[in-house]
Amino acid sequence: MLTREEQKKPLGQRVLGFIREHRLVLSQSCLLVAVSGGSDSVCLLHILANLKEELGIELHVAHLNHQLRGAESEADAQYVANLVHRLSVPATIEKREVKAYQAQKHLSLEEAAREVRYTFLAQVAESVGATQVAVGHTRDDNVETILMHLVRGTGTRGLQGLKPYTEWQPDTKSLIIIRPLLGVSREETASYCQTHKLMPRIDSSNLSLSPLRNRIRLKLLPLLKGYNPQVTKAILRTAHIAGDDFAFLEKEGIRLWDEIVQRQENMITLDKEGFLRLPSALKRHLLRMAIEKLLGNLKDIETRHIEEIINVLSKPAGKKLSLPRGLTFAIEYDRYLIGQDPSALSPFPTLAGEWLLKLPGKTKLPGWRVEASIIDQEQMAEKGKGIGLPNNLFTAYFDRDKTGDKLVVRGRKAGDRFQPLGMSQPKKLGEFMVDAKIPRTWRQQVPLVCSPQHILWVVGWRIDERVKVTDDTKQILRLKFEGIKG
User: Fold this and answer.
1) Which pTM was predicted?
2) Distance between CA 290 and CA 339 in Å, rounded?
3) 259 within domain boundaries
4) What number is the average pLDDT over the span 11-18?
5) C or N terminus of the chain, fewer CB within 10 Å?
6) Separation in Å, CA 472 to CA 253, 398, 402, 467
């Protein structure tokens, strides 16, 4: 909060101090200023126009007619055109069909207007060579935003409220947004406009109780001030504390990232043991970090979604949770997965149909090359691998007389049974896969080498007891699976 001495300074000098304190403006650059025609953005433009030489910048104004208020919107655009002409500031003034975008994207009107507006600002910034856009958010906007987040059930991130400097990342290029008026009240911007005879426009939609922000401004805040006349200061103090807490979590999250998290294409994995050891606050923060890295932002990801994940962490392997924007949270035996297709992390390619193996010879099938050779006990001993599976889990040895001549490679089928090496009785293949901790998302893609009678090998895990090499084995079948692309 400002000291009494600071409050006595002219508003322009206070804004200049805020800009310098937070290093908001890059000198020798073009700064885009979003101007709606209301008192906040008009005050911002007027102050920046007076400070541009001191800041060493050029200005360009952007105004968007959302075409939501008919003649009133047209009058706003004309007002901005007259204002920039008077201030000798170049401007881009355009119209966009917000309602059409709303219908196309199935958004609320407020969300649609915001997305259209920021997309427009990003396009104008690129066209004029600006890397930053200044918006007229005030201290009052910040308080309203914090309350909105609180009402919707936010976490620590949302309690921070608006920041002097943020980055908006649409589908195209990112846009740096600065808020030079964040230390200024809405009452002060109105008073500034009146003093300088700027005659800003009044948006009649701000009186509507339909948007949540307006209900908070017109109903909730006056009610809260009845309980605590200094509630605005209390809310901003809470935001400051939340900001410090979030900064600590961010630092710890970055420190732990490489230890706990791995990214593989469009999937993020979390080491289960390491993640479960973390305090709950860090678990939540790492989850948000992971999702934000996947999606680019946390739009539609609410606190309740993070809590749903927290509540299933101890569930058994195979549990899945659907999240917004097509994401899935999946539990495996030693890790958690977050992504749009957890099966994409399987090391095995999709295997459809049955493929007859050449014995001996080489067989190519989707994602694999299989080499079959006939060797004797001496040749096997030379490899130093002993009986059963060698150190390479994709090579196995079998008693040739027990395997038969007609072997196929296929995927899993209902009712499959298997007698794992070392066991006296067959068991269901599904039970073996559970015991072997084969992730559920992999199981359908694990290749099976089969004779007409039974499964001989769950590739990568174990051969069947009934076809193992013994001292009496005369001929040995060696099968080697090698992954290939294409």
Assistant:
1) 0.73
2) 10
3) no
4) 96
5) C
6) 59, 12, 12, 12
